[in-house]
Amino acid sequence: MTFVYNLVVVTHLLGMAAVVGGYVASQPRVSELMVWGARAQLVTGVVLVGMAESIDSLGKDPNMPKIITKLVIAVLVAAFAEMGRADAKRGKALPWMTHAAGGLAILNVFVAALWH
Questions:
Q1: Dihedral of the CA atoms 112, 52, 33, 25 (nearest 10)?
Q2: Of 16, 17, 25, 106, which has the fewest Cβ atoms less than 10 A away?
């Protein structure tokens, strides 16, 4: 089960890379890459917490205040990415949505790495 957990971690990290990389590469528009990365982050994050909570052999003890903080930020990233991409498709790209999605994704990386 550890292997499966680690595969989900890899997918979670790839989602983060898609959001942050898409932000850096496609300013001032939200790219499709950012949207799919944000979706992947949400889904894999929830799966990781579910696995950590329910599978004792993994030896994980999630920090729930940190998880809730990351979840709220991830939902905001996904919301801004979805809205920004929809606006871009209609030809009225709003740069602040791109910066909100990308900046919050970077904030989520800091929360993940620095909150112990």
A1: 20
A2: 25
What pLDDT, on the 0 to 100 scale, is given for residue 91?
Answer: 87
Taking a C-beta distance cutoff of 8 angstroms, is the pair 58, 1 a contact?
A: yes
What's the confidence (pLDDT) of residue 92?
Answer: 87
DSSP-derived secondary structure for 26-59? STTS--HHHHHHHHHHHHHHHHHHHHHHH-GGG-
Report the chain's mean pLDDT, rounded to a whole number: 95
- Summarize pLDDT for 23-51 with one digit per residue, the tens: 999 778 899 999 999 999 999 999 999 99
Angle of helix 32-54 relative to helix 95-114, nearest 10 degrees, comes to: 30
Among 81, 80, 16, 3, CA closest to 43: 16
